[in-house]
Amino acid sequence: MIDHHLVGNYINGEWTSPANREIFNSINPSTSEALASIVMSSSDDVEDAVRFAKSAYHTWRHVPAPKRADYLWLLADRLQERKEELAKLMTTEMGKVLAEAYGEVDVVIGFCKYMAGEGRRLYGQTVPASSADRMIMTIREPVGVVACITPWNFPISLAAYKICTALVAGNTIVWKPASDVALSAKLFTEIIESCGLPTGVFNVVFGSGSTVGTMLAEHPDTAVIAFTGSTEVGRKLAQLAGLHLKKISLELGGKNAVIVLADADLDLAAAGIVRSAFATSGQRCTAASRVIVEASVQEELEQRIVTLTKKLVVGNGLSLNTDVGSLANPAQLKTVEHYVDMAQQEGGRILCGGYRLDKDLWEQQGLFYAPTVITDVKNSHRIAKEEVFGPVLAILRAENYEEAIALNNDTIYGLSSSIYTNSLHYANRAARDLESGLVYINNGTSNAEIGLAFGGMKQSGNGHREVAYQAFDVMTEWKTVYTNY
Ligand code: NAP
């Protein structure tokens, strides 16, 4: 049981008092129990956080990068020590199953180590000069204060990708976590605090995105906006960044598809599809939300998908039997119900699921929705075009490879795509033809590895990448140095 307590901001190495301030509640979505009350930051808080981060930047940028990286080695150890506490809190606060929460902490530990290694690289270039007695080179320089704004579905990893990269590069940070996971963000902050970073280097402000997030984006002293979230909010932030000529990295939504060709291993495909569609209750930017199947194997594939889906146990993520946890908040549940209704009105046929699970089956007022598979979907239907971000899978039919690729690419998004086939020919053509930042062959849409660029094409982002050294493209500036000796 978690204590109901008040949470303030973390600014310049101190937790501020939330007494007599406007607050919001963090809720357990599996039970609707209130977990904590968190301060709603004011413009003064944002002002303070940015001022201290700016002041700390002047010193931090001169700490040698391998020494900056040492804090990340320490952070990896501290996370290892507090893994259980952190994983259980994330599950309690946003509903994902415990195994996934442990997996998330492991990813962050791995990423801390990967990024710490970058502290000894941060490569620039030297090239031959055209005149004698001259050396020319480019070096990476930090940019300044980075405003990190993150969503609730991966409470710590999406923040860690930004925070660790920014720190190693020599930037300082103001982080605005999603309100739905404020308590997990607080614990992650305490763990970062335990590593002894110089005061002001890392700061956290809680509060609503439309106010605190906007203030951070507009502030003249934030040099970079690093955002993961919806395409709608990403577009607003891109406008602000454009107005103020700031660097901005955007990791946004997706409408990811799995193509299954007639020659595929259908058991393998069905297992990969069900995993990618329903892990984290479908609340992943890389979740499979469309299946595009070659007509001749549609029925066989559907049977396999439905059989596996019906076996999934839905419930409180803390229970070790649970395969699919709750949705993260009431708005998510409403959105899912709305899209499933609309899909049927547009001609979709439900193969399984399609309803909210009776709340009496679960503790109190959990936000549980049955994993849902809908067939006879056309790419013109809204269920095939718009991001649902819930446990809903739409099945579309294609006559051949060419039509399957065309359907996959017929979306404003371009985050993750997958193809199941035993044909080397089609697998390689798909790697070339699929318009998405991530392509999987004989794997679901959701399985990223540390050290490889992560991000989307088209409206899934703005061309930047995270989770690998390519993230330095936004977290550093190039400086070109000419030396006549
Ligand atoms: P969201 O509504 O866009 O919120 C994301 C973050 O932005 C939250 O911290 C939110 O704060 C803040 N925010 C909201 N409105 C804002 C505004 N006007 N200005 C500045 N900040 C604002 O997204 P979400 O519902 O939390 O997350 C789901 C979305 O994230 C999906 O679209 C999903 O695809 C995307 N996502 C993408 C990736 C990726 O790597 N491509 C990964 C995960 C998720 P509050 O919520 O506290 O108000």
Explain how this protein is built:
By secondary structure, this protein is α/β, with parallel strands linked by helices. It has 2 domains: 272 residues, Aldehyde Dehydrogenase, Chain A, domain 1; 194 residues, 3-Layer(aba) Sandwich (Aldehyde Dehydrogenase, Chain A, domain 2). Helix content is 39%, strand content 22%. The protein contains 15 helices and 22 strands. Strands 15-16-17-14-13-19-20 form a 7-stranded mixed β-sheet, with helices on both faces. A 5-stranded parallel β-sheet has the order 10-9-8-11-12, with helices on both faces. Helix 2 packs antiparallel against helix 4, helix 3 packs antiparallel against helix 6 and helix 9 crosses helix 10. The protein starts with a strand and ends with a strand. The model has no long low-confidence stretch (mean pLDDT 96). The chain binds NADP nicotinamide-adenine-dinucleotide phosphate. The site of NADP nicotinamide-adenine-dinucleotide phosphate (NAP) has 30 residues, from helix 7 and helix 8.
SSE layout and pairing:
Blueprint lengths: L4 E3 L2 E2 L2 E2 L7 E6 L4 E7 L3 H18 L4 H17 L1 H12 L3 H21 L6 E3 L6 E9 L2 E5 L7 H13 L2 E5 L5 H12 L8 E3 L4 H10 L3 E7 L2 H14 L2 E5 L4 E5 L5 H13 L9 E7 L3 H14 L18 H16 L3 E4 L19 E4 L6 H4 L6 E7 L2 H9 L3 E2 L1 E5 L3 H10 L4 E4 L15 E2 L13 H4 E9 L1
Parallel strand pairs: 1-5, 8-9, 8-11, 9-10, 11-12, 13-14, 13-19, 14-17, 16-17, 19-20
Antiparallel strand pairs: 2-3, 4-5, 6-7, 7-22, 15-16, 18-21
